[in-house]
Design goal:
It comes from Rhodovulum viride. With 870 residues, the protein is of the alpha+beta class. It has 33 helices and 29 strands.
């Protein structure tokens, strides 16, 4: 192409040559811009979009935190007020009214409940919300108490989060637990449930398709959708265990790239057209004329001494230091500012080497080398360099060196202009030191000096997934709470510091020990170290931690449980390493503490099954897959149906009907029981209403009720919306709840249910928590004898006497007695003779679906006189 272009240009005059060259340059520039845009625009837009989303997520997380801080302000003031701690430190009956009014001031249109616990977990005061129904039960409101008692949290609030109805994270419920201290000791906790509308904070826009909150449970259980996908950005909300998650609009980047490409090519073409055309039409004016003018200016400059004198005068007046040197860099002239800055006199510097005069031991060799190389190439150069005055004191200078050419283009002088920037450099150094200090504090535990959880997250983020295998040791101290309770928190801090020393001394240089919680530690072993190394390390550390720790003439004794996981066996990757080590640690705790457990394939299968089941339970709650089953109850004498007990079953889409043992334990860990209880309650009432309309006339329906269910103020409201006819509703309270919840608030809620017409029954009486005093105070309508006491009555007289004693207690207090676990006709006959009023068990029927119950009732195949048993 070059040859053909040269041939074409050879046959035309200079003007047309310049015009053709200009046109070729225009087309080449336009093509280059289009190609560069194609190669750079899309990746650049993707990065900008991702950076904008990260900033947006962090901003919204900060907005959520600010919203919570505003909500918490008055509650923090009350929790930290001396009178609150004094109230919880004693009975303080005279201050109850004033304290209650203080709690009521915290209630507003978004408050669901306000509770004040003492350190034993007893609700001293409770104020229900004005307009909002609670979604957190009592067990959830007490979660912060165990952590406070264990010394795992200080005085800062503990905030839990739950999405709104239907998983709506815009209208969300927040449970805020604020420790109350008095005399430096924890006295209890103020717990507030707020329902906040976060639509102004979390509403999406054109850049992000969806914004939501993610709970810490979701982050721990499902890391694949909360921050480890290209189209999702997650930012933690400081001081909480949940995150703001933004879903990226992936189609936006491509559309913007195409639109920008068209606009840039169009406008660039138009912008380049004018100068290229002008250059082609008037090239001789912009090339020849400036060249001639430059030559003329050089001649004029060489002959105009007056102008040179004026320039020298200006240089002398300048506050910047100016030095002129010859071609060999020897100083020939300086201005007064240079002499004032350096402390030299003009006689001392004239003829000296300009490069070596001011440089010293602290001067950066690389900066000096760059200056010399630019001077050798006769090019202008700028640099920031450390220089030294005549008395040896250092100063920083911003230096600019420019060559001066003669008419023949030879360098005859160098002009160096420098500005003192010492103060700026000092300030920048102070800022850098402060930044390093803040970063160190942010990444290290203030008590032990070990890296903290944030540092651990950075460490894992920097590990190459394809690199050498890595192993993790997860440590949790045993009996640490006893140290705090017995010897005080200062002793607990001393123990934690000693454990940190043991970890530092017992690990290899490549290992990283860290403290991630109150008494929780992690050791990330160096690259290549496998789980065998981790097992040996854990065994040594367990023995060392188990030694007595002296403190102020006292002896502190603790132990430690260990969970170990590694990537070498292929079970888990780097992203799941710490979570898997946690699972191994929990297994150690279950084995009786002071144990070392390795994450094995069997444990891995258990963890995966638990995660899968947790996902299915959440889905089941949203889809209301839980169903009521009914077990009938019969009069011991007449055999008439007197009621049905409602029991929960899960209609799994794949595994069919599942019993409670398959899901209730994990559902309780997930705090999902209030939702499941609410579904069973509503559906159970609807099924009983349908049976009554069909003519079966169910006398009574009872539901098992936990503490959260008793405090569910909407129970009467749900029942009022369903026409049950004459059917009575009863709630069955576990005997353990009867013993543990004997408080004024508990009695208030029970009396409130009675006022609405609900019957009160005690379930599993005699199961090991029998409390006659509690029975007298609650005065239930019915007490159900635990089936473990019923089963042996056909075998031993001792069992019959025991049941007779319990029946006598019921008769004495005027309480109806129901016997559970009636398995045979002999059971039914003996229990009727012993005075039981009602019988329930497999002898009559197993728990039945509503349709099966109706069939059995219509056929008369149930009750003491029935001829067949389910």
């Amino acid at each position: 192409m070059t040859g053909s272009l040269s041939a074409v240009l050879a046959g035309v005059d200079v003007g047309r040559r310049f015009l053709l060259l200009t046109a070729a340059g225009y087309l080449t520039a336009l093509a280059s811009i289009a190609a560069a845009l194609w190669l750079v625009a899309v990746p650049a837009l993707h990065k900008l979009h991702l950076a904008a989303l990260e900033t947006q997520a962090q901003t919204r997380a900060g907005s959520v935190q600010d919203t919570l801080d505003l909500v918490l302000a008055e509650a923090l003031s009350l929790a930290r007020a001396p009178q609150t701690g004094a109230y919880l430190s004693s009975d303080a009956g005279a201050r109850t009214t004033r304290m209650r009014r203080a709690l009521e001031r915290l209630s507003d249109g978004v408050t669901a409940q306000v509770l004040l616990f003492d350190r034993n977990g007893t609700v001293r005061l409770r104020t229900p919300g004005v307009m909002v129904r609670p979604v957190f039960g009592l067990a959830e409101t007490r979660q912060g108490l165990s952590q406070l008692a264990a010394g795992r949290i200080g005085s800062e609030p503990l905030i839990s989060y739950r999405p709104g109805r239907g998983g709506n994270s815009v209208d969300s419920a927040f449970l805020m637990s604020i420790p109350v201290f008095a005399g430096g000791q924890p006295r209890g906790m103020l717990v507030i449930e707020k329902h906040l509308d976060l639509s102004r904070v979390l509403t999406g826009d054109a850049v992000s398709a969806k914004t939501r909150l993610a709970t810490a449970f979701q982050v721990a259980m499902y890391p694949d959708w909360t921050g480890h996908r290209d189209d999702l950005i997650a930012a933690p909300v400081a001081g909480t265990d949940f995150f703001v998650v933004i879903e990226r609009n992936t189609r936006l980047t491509g559309r913007l790239a195409r639109e920008m490409g068209r606009e840039v090519v169009l406008f660039t073409g138009l912008a380049l057209l004018v100068p290229f055309v002008a250059m082609g039409l008037a090239g001789h004016r912009f090339i020849v004329a400036p060249h001639r003018a430059l030559e003329q200016s050089r001649r004029d400059l060489a002959t105009s001494r007056d102008e040179l004198a004026e320039l020298a005068q200006i240089a002398r007046m300048s506050s910047d230091s100016i030095v002129v040197s010859d071609a060999q860099r020897r100083i020939v002239w300086t201005n007064p500012a240079f002499l004032a800055l350096t402390g030299y006199t003009a006689r001392e510097v004239l003829g000296r080497d300009a490069d070596a005069l001011l440089q010293g031991p602290g001067t950066d060799p690389a900066a000096g080398r760059r200056l010399r190389e630019a001077i050798a190439r006769k090019e202008p150069v700028r640099a920031e360099i450390l220089n030294y005055r005549r008395d040896g004191t250092p100063f920083w200078a911003h230096l600019s060196i420019t060559p001066i050419f003669d008419a023949d283009g030879r360098v005859i002088r160098f002009a160096a202009i420098s500005t003192d920037i010492t103060r700026r450099k000092t300030y920048e150094g102070e800022l850098e030191r402060a930044r390093h200090e803040l970063e160190h504090q942010a990444l290290h535990d203030s008590l032990t000096g070990l890296p903290n959880r944030r540092a651990l997250e950075r460490l894992f983020a920097g590990i190459d997934p394809e690199g050498d295998p890595r192993s993790v040791v997860r440590i949790d101290l045993d009996h640490f709470k006893n140290v705090n309770d017995t010897h005080g928190h200062a002793a607990g801090d001393h123990v934690l510091i000693r454990v940190a020393e043991i970890l530092r001394e017992g690990t290899d240089p490549g290992d990283v020990p860290a403290r991630i919680g109150g008494d929780e530690f992690v050791i990330v072993l160096g690259p290549g170290r496998d789980t065998d190394d981790a097992m040996r390390l854990a065994d040594r550390l367990r023995n060392e931690i188990g030694r007595d720790i002296p403190y102020q003439n006292k002896t502190c004794r603790i132990g430690a449980s260990f969970g170990i996981c590694g990537t070498g066996d292929g079970l888990v990757d780097i992203g799941a390493l710490l979570v898997s080590a946690d699972a191994a640690l929990y297994a150690s705790k279950d084995d009786g503490r002071s144990a070392i457990t390795l994450y094995t394939p069997d444990l891995h299968r258990d963890v995966q099954e638990k995660r899968r089941l947790a996902v299915e339970i959440e889905r089941a709650v949203l889809n209301e897959e839980f169903l009521p089953y009914f077990q009938p109850q019969f009069d011991a004498v007449s055999g008439a149906l007197v009621g049905v007990e409602t029991l929960a079953r899960w209609q799994h889409p794949v595994r069919g009907i599942l019993p409670p043992a398959a899901f209730l334990g994990l559902a309780a860990q997930m705090s999902m029981m209030p939702e499941i209880d609410r579904i069973i309650y509503r559906k159970g009432l609807q099924e009983v209403a349908a049976m009554n309309r069909a003519g079966f006339d169910i006398p009574k329906v009872s539901f098992n009720a936990g503490v959260a269910q008793l405090r569910e103020t909407d129970l009467p409201g749900i029942a009022a919306a369903i026409d049950l006819g004459p059917t009575r509703i009863a709630v069955e309270i576990l005997e353990s709840v009867l013993v543990e919840e004997q408080t004024d608030e508990f009695g208030f809620h029970v009396d409130l249910l009675r006022d609405y017409g609900f019957g009160i029954e005690i379930d599993d009486f005699g199961s090991g928590h029998a409390s006659v005093v509690g029975l007298m105070q609650l005065a239930p309508d019915v007490m159900k004898i635990d089936q473990r006491l019923i089963v042996p009555v056909t075998r031993t007289e001792r069992a019959r006497r025991l049941v007779r004693s319990i029946v006598d207690i019921g008769h004495t207090f005027g309480i109806g007695v129901t016997a559970e676990g009636v398995e045979t006709a002999a059971h039914a006959e003996i229990l009727a003779a012993l005075g039981c009023h009602t019988l329930q068990g497999f002898h009559f029927a197993r728990p039945l679906a509503p349709k099966d119950l109706c069939t059995r009732l219509s056929e008369g195949r149930m009750g003491p006189g029935a001829s067949s048993v389910a």
